């Protein structure tokens, strides 16, 4: 029996849409190319220590209502990210200790950064979250890269370094890879720079007990028809419905939701072909590049030294670190992100080379003890064929203003979800959930 609706993609967006549609009485089938659910979230158990860690998305915060509401609905719990103690910054070859957001740089640098960030956030507040292409001066903002704007407006090299670290940490990309309009839009989704980068009260405040992958697993467990290892190979639409040809058979429904990164659809044959604007959009949305690395120690030794485990570095390859220890505080886990240009430099390296490079970065920040973990794990998201990268899609110059209107617009009986289509918290778990709820409401309205 054919379902009413097929959802392609068993990440947070697709599973949320399927749950809401099922709750409304629709027959829904979920097709997932991977052999697991979760998409860009993935919780796994380490073989030596038995510790469960998130090698994909993991943080949630009180300023993200959609994910927090779903966590509560599913009966899951959160616990706070450890942030007590001093942070570290390796800037210009010197390790600085500090608390809060900004390292203790020279007064002229701090003044320059304050002016630059104020100007940037003021521009971000002018961007309509769900329609950036309608912003005042959208064409001008979209015609330049974020890097161009940094070069023009930052007077000090340390200020430029801080803004590039922000781009790497939040976008997993170089500021040269995105338009200024995209950087402003993304920043506005989090309510400003602090909304994306701070813990208490912000996006990094909490982690999900049992791992972020448990959200997707609970969602999948509530559904009757989730089919793994079913990559879609072709989509055919007619007046009565949509037929999907997959690696595991053929499926048909009255409507289909694609809840996957748009770039993955650029090589998928559609019959009839997608409208030119939608097809061109999919060709213009590459994903960010990030390698997530974790080192496990018998204890969180940095806490004994009065350190929070949070650090930033302009020398790489690890640019950002956080304390990723479990709620009981042991074993100790340091998490390091290798992002953008640094990730690309290590793309062709083997795991041992990446491990050595990452541990050397941790050693420069936290001392020799960081060089001797009892276990490590790494995930290079650029090698994930059904993600294409992380954290999300990058809109280069001209993409928002030239093609943005096609991002969420249905094409006949085909609808679009996924973190890239979120109207708030784009490319975050909360944004993925919001997009699933949005497309479910869209379909229920379309079907009366």
UniProtKB/TrEMBL annotation:
<feature type="domain" description="Amine oxidase">
    <location>
        <begin position="12"/>
        <end position="444"/>
    </location>
</feature>
<dbReference type="Pfam" id="PF01593">
    <property type="entry name" value="Amino_oxidase"/>
</dbReference>
<dbReference type="InterPro" id="IPR001613">
    <property type="entry name" value="Flavin_amine_oxidase"/>
</dbReference>
<dbReference type="InterPro" id="IPR036188">
    <property type="entry name" value="FAD/NAD-bd_sf"/>
</dbReference>
<dbReference type="InterPro" id="IPR002937">
    <property type="entry name" value="Amino_oxidase"/>
</dbReference>
<dbReference type="InterPro" id="IPR050703">
    <property type="entry name" value="Flavin_MAO"/>
</dbReference>
<protein>
    <submittedName>
        <fullName>Flavin-containing monoamine oxidase AofH</fullName>
    </submittedName>
</protein>
<comment type="similarity">
    <text>Belongs to the flavin monoamine oxidase family.</text>
</comment>
<keyword id="KW-0560">Oxidoreductase</keyword>
């Amino acid at each position: 029996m054919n379902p009413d609706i097929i959802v392609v993609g068993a990440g947070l967006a697709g599973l949320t849409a399927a749950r809401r549609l099922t709750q409304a009485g629709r027959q829904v089938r979920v097709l997932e190319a991977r052999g697991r659910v979760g998409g860009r979230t993935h919780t796994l158990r380490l073989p030596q220590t038995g510790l469960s860690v998130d090698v994909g998305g993991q943080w949630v915060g009180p300023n993200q209502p959609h994910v927090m509401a779903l966590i509560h609905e599913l009966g899951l719990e959160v616990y706070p990210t450890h942030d007590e103690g001093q942070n570290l910054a390796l800037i210009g070859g010197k390790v600085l200790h500090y608390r809060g957001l900004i390292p203790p740089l020279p007064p002229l640098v701090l003044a320059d950064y304050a002016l630059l960030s104020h100007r940037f956030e003021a521009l971000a507040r002018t961007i309509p979250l769900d329609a950036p292409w309608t912003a005042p001066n959208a064409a001008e903002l979209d015609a330049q890269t974020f890097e161009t704007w940094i070069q023009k407006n930052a007077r000090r090299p340390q200020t430029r370094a801080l803004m590039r670290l922000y781009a790497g940490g939040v976008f997993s990309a170089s500021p040269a890879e995105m338009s200024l309009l995209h950087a402003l839009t993304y920043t506005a989704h989090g309510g400003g720079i602090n909304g994306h980068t701070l813990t208490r009260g912000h996006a990094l405040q909490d982690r999900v007990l049992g791992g972020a992958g448990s959200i997707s697993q609970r969602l999948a467990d509530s559904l009757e028809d989730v089919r793994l290892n079913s990559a879609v190979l072709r989509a055919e639409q007619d007046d009565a419905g949509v037929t999907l040809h997959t690696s595991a058979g053929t499926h048909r429904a009255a409507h289909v939701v694609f809840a996957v990164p748009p770039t993955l659809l650029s090589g998928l044959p559609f019959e009839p072909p997608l409208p030119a604007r939608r097809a061109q959009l999919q060709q213009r949305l590459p994903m960010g590049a990030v390698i997530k690395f974790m080192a496990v120690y018998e204890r969180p030794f940095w806490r004994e030294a009065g350190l929070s485990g949070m650090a930033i570095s302009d020398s790489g390859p690890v640019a950002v670190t956080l304390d990723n220890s479990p709620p009981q505080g042991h074993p100790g886990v340091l998490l390091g992100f290798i992002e953008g240009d640094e990730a690309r430099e290590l793309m062709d390296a083997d795991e041992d080379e990446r491990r050595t490079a990452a541990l050397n970065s941790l050693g420069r920040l936290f001392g020799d003890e960081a060089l001797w973990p009892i276990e490590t794990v790494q995930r290079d998201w650029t090698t994930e064929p059904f993600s294409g990268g992380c954290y999300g899609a990058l809109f280069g110059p001209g993409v928002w203003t030239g093609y943005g209107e096609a991002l969420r617009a249905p094409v006949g009986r085909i609808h679009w979800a996924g973190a890239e289509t979120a109207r708030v918290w784009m490319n975050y778990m909360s944004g993925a959930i919001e997009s699933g709820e949005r497309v479910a409401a869209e379909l229920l309205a379309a079907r009366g």
